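so i finally got all the pieces together for this one. its two components total, 633 residues if u count the protein bits. some of the lines might not be protein, just check the labels. i wanna see the whole assembly predicted at once instead of chain by chain like last time, that was a mess tbh
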Amino acid sequence: MTIPRAGADTLLAADVGRPASATRLQRTLRERLLSHPLAVVGAVILLALALLVLATPLIGMGLGIDSDTQDLFARMQPPSAAHWLGTDELGRDLLLRLLEGGRVSLGIGLVIALAAAVIGTLVGLTAGYVGGRTDTVLMRLTDGIIALPRLPLLIVLAALDVTKLGLPDQWAHAPMLAFWRIAVIITLVGWTTVARLVRGATLSLREREFVRAANALGAGSARIMFVHILPNLAGSIVVATTLSVGGIILLESVLSFLGLGIQPPMASWGNMLTNAQEMIWSAPMLAVWPGLLIFVTVISCNFLGDGLQDALDPRA
Amino acid sequence: MTRFILQRLAETLIVLLVMSFVIYGLIGLMPGDPIDLMLTADPKLTAADVARLKALQGLDQPLIHRYLLWLSAALQGDFGYSRLQSLPVWQVLTPRLWNTILLMGISQLIALAIAIPAGVRAAARPGSLADNMINLTAFAGMSVPLFWLGILLIMLFSVYLRILPASGTATVGVHSLADRAVYLIMPVLSLTLVTVGSQLRYVRSAMTEVLRQDFIRTAAAKGVSRRRLLYGHALRNAMIPFVTILALDFGTLFSGALIVEQIFAYLGMGKTIFDAIMGNDFNLAMVGLLLSTAVVLLSNLAADLAYAWLDPRITYR
């Protein structure tokens, strides 16, 4: 019987050997990721965008205006020294609007991806580890949400009158409501990918020796799930979350474009395109920049996620 | 197999029933209600009138009661009138459903005609220049915001080149196939471009998976020609997961169609649903949403059945 030996080895490795193996893993990960030029490019672009977007208030101070400053005498100006990318239909600085919109779009992408990852992980771990009827119910729910036509239902959810849900009036008209509403409804449909992935991996990990060993040592379900199983899933969860950010930013932008997401005067790349469609005859560049930034951000997320997937997938 | 089909069909119907209740509830939570609309039309209505009208229309009843009334009427084929069009809901939806089927069908066929040969080619020579180019195209298609792509196409073809109409379904008063075709070019082009992106990746990964297997090596060793190896042996097997994903992806295609219809003012289901939600056209929104849910659920059912039918190794009790 080799099973007890293997179990003890795994336990030892888990307690003593982790630091060494972790650095080794990190090194191979870095090497594999670096061999993926597109993933590196994606990571660099995302980092640069994040820094730029965080520095927006500083840039605004440097120019002496902010993203909401209107100048109706200087509408739809071409690029100039004062306005590097020109101005929009209300005479606001386009570059500052774009950066401000980026802060909202990137922020919402991150918030939703993290929330969806947490919910998906909890659901997947519970379904996979507890099994039985719990598993059936949770997975039916997951499959049901995956099976629905996503955009039409999101439109309905985004158009709901929140006061009818009993939300007080001053909340319903708070400027941040649109931000959190969009975050909540996209999270509601976004957790399913991670949940299925985590459940599948949990099902196979559950039968492994180190889990049985932990069980034999008297660890409770919660401890086994979060201390023993979850760390083994970290890689796949990170990949799935990275890959989901792009899709989330696309969903947010389309809802904002349709007038149901982020509400003006708060800028988002999606709602900057709402009016731009009507002005493609007079100011076509207004429609080019926000979309280009969405495109670059989403493709960078996808490149990075794809690279991470290859780096973490032992078969690749 | 018959039992499996019946069981899945029953499940689908139950999900659809549950969804009809959920959608009914959500529509009830939309801003305004029919009496509000009458109130804006006639400011002289008093609070007592409003209460009386609500009782008359049954709007003071509990949600479940109203839902059951709606359901019993719907089951008898009465889906009510569209507020904006002043027509029975079915008469509004039927022609638009055909418009959407046309848009989605043509886009999907063109997407397949590109994605299958290109995906096979990419999988056949992984790491080659062709593979890398195809991979980049796929990423671009997956990452481009569809509504922005539509705006760019309008800029190119309608603003600069002035060769295509910027929006619409057909020229008013003209009933010819050529006229319809002209209006379909840009919607189909944009929907095809984003669809090809994800489907290229599906074909490529399904093919890569199959090409790793032993029977492929055996066939190659036996001296089967490269073409026959790829298309005869490998693609046939790769189609099993691909067809399944295709059917599961139907909801994405429908969501794409909604965006495209909105950008190009193309009168299809998606635009109808959107306009109905925005315009407080409750009956139309309800039926439109339910119909699209039903279609998407049925395509999921089709995915399950196709999987069982295409792969003889799978048996269902």
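The mean pLDDT of chain B is 88.
Residues 89-124 of chain B form the longest helix (36 residues).
anyway lmk what u think
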